[in-house]
Amino acid sequence: MTRVIAIANQKGGVGKTTTTVNLAASLAAMKRRILLVDMDPQANATTGIGLDKHEQRTTLTDVLLGEAHVTEILHKLPDSSLHVLPGSPELTVAEVSLMSKERREYHLKEALAPLQGAYDYVLIDCPPSLNMLTVNALVAATGIIIPMQCEYYALEGLSALVGTIERITQTANPDLQVMGLVRTMYDPRSNLARDVSEQINAFFRNKVYNTAIPRNIRLAEAPSHGLSALEYDKSSRGALAYLALAAEILRKDAAKAVSNGELAW
C-alpha cells in the first residue's frame, strides 16, 4: 500500500522543500520506491532535485486540469528509486482554474490513483499557503508531516494549519492524520528554540519526531547544485539528520503496521 504524505505548513521559510527533497532522497537510499510531487508554483523541489522547471513541456498543471496523464510527466532519476512529478510556475494557473471545477479538491488524488502500489511513499511538497493546491495535497494524502522552526510566530501559524486539517478530515478525507512535526533549523543553544520545542512537545506529545534538523550550510548549498544533501555531502550534519528522520519514520510505520495486523515491508 502506497503511503501518501503531504509536507505542509502555510508559513514560508520553515524548510518544507528542504525536508521533502532530503527525506525523499534518504528514503530512496534505504531502498524504498519514492515519488516526489512538487505542488508548489515556485518549483524549488524540482530544481533542488536537478530538473529545470522551465524546460517542462507538459506539467503538473496539465495533469491537474485533466489535459495529460500523470505518466506523461513522470521523471525517473538515474541510478535511483526516486521519481519526480515536477512543478512549474504554471501551477498558479491550475490553482485558479480548479476553483471553477467540479470535485476541485480531488483532482490530485484522482491523478495519482493509477500509481497506487507503484511506490512505497509519495511525498508532496506543498506551497506556503492554505490554498486549493494545498487542499488537493491534503485530500490526496493519508498523512501529513509538518516542518517548523522553533520560533514564536511558527506556533501562531500552526493553529491555522491544524484547523484546516480538522476541516478536511471532517469533510473530504477522514483518513488524513498528522504523522509528526519536524523541528527544522534547530539550534539547541538557543533559549527560544528550547522553549518553543518544549511547548510543541507539551501540545503534540508523541507527534514530535525525536530527530531535529540542525542549521547546516551543506543543506543550504545543495539545492544550488541540483542535489540532495545526501548526494552533495553524505557526511554532513544535515544529510545525517535526514537519514535519521527517514529511519524514524520507517520504524514508526513498521510498528503501526504490526499493531494493525498488517505485514510490514
Layout of helices and strands:
Blueprint lengths: L2 E5 L8 H14 L4 E5 L5 H5 L11 H5 L10 E2 L5 E4 L5 H8 L8 H6 L8 E5 L6 H9 L2 E7 L2 H20 L5 E8 L6 H14 L12 H5 L7 H4 L4 H23 L6
Parallel strand pairs: 1-5, 1-6, 2-4, 2-5, 6-7
Antiparallel strand pairs: 3-4
Overview of the molecule:
With 265 residues, the protein is of the alpha/beta class. It is 43% helix and 14% strand. It is built from eleven helices and seven strands. The protein has helices at 16-29, 44-48, 60-64, 91-98, 107-112, 132-140, 152-171, 191-204, 217-221, 229-232, 237-259; strands at 3-7, 34-38, 75-76, 82-85, 121-125, 143-149, 177-184. Strands 3-4-2-5-1-6-7 form a seven-stranded mixed beta sheet, sandwiched between helices. Helix 1 crosses helix 11 (237-259). The chain is globular, with a radius of gyration of 17 Å. The protein starts with a strand and ends in a 6-residue tail after the last helix.
